[in-house]
Amino acid sequence: MRRIFPGWLLVGAVMVALMLCGTTIVVSTFGIFTAHWMRSFGWSQGAMAGSLSIFLLSTTLAVPVAGVAVDRFGSRRTAIFGVTAFAALLAAVAPSVGSLPSLFLFYALLGLLGAFTNPIVYIRALSAWFDRRRGIALGIAVAGQGLGAAVLPPLVQYVSESAGWRSAFHLLSAGLVLIVLPLVLLFVRDDPAALGVRPDGGVRARPADGDAAGLTLAEARRTGAFWIILIVFALFGLVNYALSGHFVYLMLQRGVGTLPQIAMLLSIAGASMIGGRVLFGWLFDRYPLPLVGAAGVLCGGVALALLLGIAAIGPAAFAMSVLMGVAMGAETDLLSLLVSRYFGQRAISRIYSWQNVSFLAGAAGGPPLFALLLERFSDPTVPILVLIALCALSVLLLLLLKAPAHAAAACP
């Protein structure tokens, strides 16, 4: 009987781990918890929204530290620390939240420790275990965030209604300790050579020296590709969070469907994001990364164009939701692959952290910028057109992207 390649066990473990990573838990459950806090404490939505911005800011500050930790100690040891510390935070600090200052402090700590549970922790290990199949491996692994976004909201809502919101945090903590931590201990390994196997299960020899060694952070910063990727992912973060942060508001303001119907569209987008990650992961392994990435961004641009003309729930609304999800899935895979293919393994986590910070900075600025545009123009048409223009700029930059000299021969 043929033995399962341990790299696929790593992929499965990371997929489950990312279902309960910091970003997945906080972003997917924020609306559920705020509804219960509004009921329990009488806090306004506007006041509580500041905690999410604090979370994004603290995550942005912690990501470079997580990148250094992974490059120095490896994915396995960093993940063990991150999962343990994050679980302890959820169990010990969440129950003490009872005022807005304590809520802001809690979300700041969630960002600082949650960064050590996010995809950046696992990218190095996944890139070491997979070369030719790296795209599909990353696509499957990162799909865990989409699965978590689909599963956690109804689960947290059920537990919060039946046993209280504090019990929901205890459940999330237990999931990290009882499910994620054992999977990390069993299956997350930094180097396939330690188990006597090669990347891709021996299908292909060890990557070329340019991929295995690669550039230092300082060397990467001296390439044009580094800065183009930085700008592109800042634009991705801005567009994605500007839309997701105001999607429900836009639909309700224009009288497009009821709240349950809009929630259904978001569920469709979440499911499509999972499919998009796997589909584009497969495409990334076969075609040039910038070209496939540009196609993913175009899906987002078309979704925004459809949003301009939607007046009721129907085929156009469903198509828009599918394209939204596909675009988000493609963009997530693209960042990991561009960094590993273009800059190699030597400082992959440090370099990835810079690009991730640019995405988070764009994400933090997207919602307030879009809100300002909505306030300036009474109709959402102009703000949406601005987002479409930013998608077009992203496509242009991707098509201009060239791999650094050391990586040009290795890139598909």
UniProtKB/TrEMBL annotation:
Keywords, ordered alphabetically: Membrane, Transmembrane, Transmembrane helix
Task: Indicate the transmembrane segments per the record.
Answer: 7-35, 47-70, 79-98, 104-123, 135-156, 168-188, 225-243, 263-284, 291-312, 318-339, 351-374, 380-401
- MF-aspect GO terms: transmembrane transporter activity
Q: Which domain of life is it from?
A: Bacteria
Against SUPFAM superfamilies, the record matches this protein to: MFS general substrate transporter
Pfam families reported for this sequence = MFS_1 (PF07690)
**Residues annotated as domain Major facilitator superfamily (MFS) profile:** 10-406
Q: Which PROSITE patterns match?
A: MFS
State what protein this is by name. Answer: Sugar phosphate permease
Q: Which organism is it from?
A: Rhizorhabdus histidinilytica
